[in-house]
Design goal:
5-stranded mixed sheet, Arc Repressor Mutant, subunit A, 3 domains, 12 helices, Nucleotidyltransferase, domain 5, globular, 39% helix, binds zinc ion, 390 residues
């Protein structure tokens, strides 16, 4: 895993980064607006923008309906001349997506597929889809963000252990993909990627102390303290899902019994529903069953809500965040079910800590996480920290 390099690939000077950041914050803007937002003089702004235009990193277009006064040209992040790719590897399903430098993820530029059963097949499938997306665009590809679950050791530069997807154990899919594609690829943990996405494109803009819980397949935690992602000694911090919640519980992918993630996730709810029905049940089938026959599965919903609440309360009690973002489907996206979880969080959390904390569903996705990660790397030359340069 890359951690730092001498200079960012896209932006060579601090003024370029200032302008880029201003466009990121404001969306398309005139040169005059960018001068005001960046605090740089109009001649400097024009010089920087000309350089960015020449290198295809920003684009200029006429404002469609100018307000009173003379028409402006607006500057925006490149979407036709420059591209980045995001790869999301997960248990069950993977996807590859392509966006411009504005990071706008769309369904028509996203290719999904079931996770293959061997590492070689996984690499083949990811490579084929990257090539397919690149063949459809004339834009120059600047990098690929690869988001994975499991423990990534920065020191060993690989996924050292992936409880829910063991084919990744001792592998670095970004490094292998880079060799195949000849484009820079960045490996990142899915929680760090989600934290970045929420900060760049979601509800965490401007937040310096927040936590991110992923409750889809595994139960993962990302914590941002003082604007920097908590990484630990080797970058492996945040494995809250493997805290033992029931010493006699079912076997977890890590080998232990009764880990919190075997009881507090979407995957846990699907497993309990499957056990009740005593027949195979896919994630999608479980989701539609819950829409039609929610009352039939109240016992299972309440059981999972109870443990998810314990996880959220543990995060709030331990880290004192201003916001906890929860990334999930079955228990999070449906407000009535999320309310059940929140009611239990209130019982489990220390009151003064809860009073300072908001708990909300994420607005961003793992796809955006992969894109946010590679954009952060290309523009800042650092990962995974969110620390400020100035
Ligand atoms: Zn475990």
């Amino acid at each position: 895993m890359k951690t730092e390099r001498a200079e960012p690939a896209l932006l060579r000077r601090i003024n370029e980064r200032r302008i880029f950041e201003a466009i990121q914050r404001s969306g398309p803007a005139s040169r005059a607006t960018l001068a005001r937002l960046s605090g740089l003089t109009p001649p400097t702004v024009s010089k920087v923008i000309d350089s960015l235009l020449t290198r295809g990193l920003v684009e200029e277009f006429d404002q469609p309906r100018p307000p009173l006064g003379r028409p402006h040209k607006l500057i925006t992040m490149a979407t036709t001349s420059a591209a980045v790719l995001g790869v999301v590897i997960d248990a069950g399903a993977c996807c590859v997506t392509e966006t411009g430098l504005d990071g706008r993820v769309t369904e028509d530029k996203t290719l999904r597929f079931p996770t293959p059963d061997t590492y070689e097949k996984l690499l083949d499938e990811v490579e084929a889809r990257c090539r397919m997306l690149l063949s459809r665009t004339a834009a120059a590809a600047h990098g690929v963000g690869v988001s994975v679950p499991g423990l990534i050791s920065e020191r060993l530069n690989q996924v050292v252990f992936c409880p829910n997807l063991h084919l990744l154990d001792h592998r670095n899919p970004a490094q292998d993909l880079e060799q195949r594609l000849g484009i820079e690829c960045l490996l990142m943990h899915e929680l760090q990627a989600l934290c970045l996405a929420e900060r760049m494109y979601g509800g965490a803009r401007g937040l310096d102390n927040f936590a991110m819980l992923d409750v889809t397949q595994g139960l993962g935690l990302g914590v941002v303290v003082g604007g920097v992602i908590l990484a630990g000694h080797s970058g492996m911090a945040g494995e809250i899902g493997h805290i033992t919640a029931d010493p006699t519980g079912i076997r977890c992918g890590c080998g232990n019994r009764g880990c919190l993630e075997t009881m507090a996730t979407d995957a846990a709810l699907v497993r309990m529903m499957r056990e009740r029905l005593n027949k195979p049940l896919s994630f999608a089938a479980a989701a539609s069953l819950l829409e039609g026959r929610e009352a039939d599965f109240q016992t299972e919903i309440l059981a999972v809500a109870e443990y998810l609440a314990i996880a959220i309360a543990a995060v709030i009690n331990t880290f004192n965040p201003t916001t906890v973002f929860v990334h999930g489907k079955l228990l999070v996206e449906k407000q009535e079910r999320f309310d059940l979880v929140l009611a239990r969080v209130r019982e489990r959390t220390l009151e003064p800590l809860l009073a300072e904390c908001t708990i909300v569903a994420t607005r961003s996705s793992k796809r955006q996480g992969a894109i946010a990660g590679i954009m952060h790397w290309l523009t800042e030359g650092r990962t995974p920290g969110l620390g400020r340069r100035r």
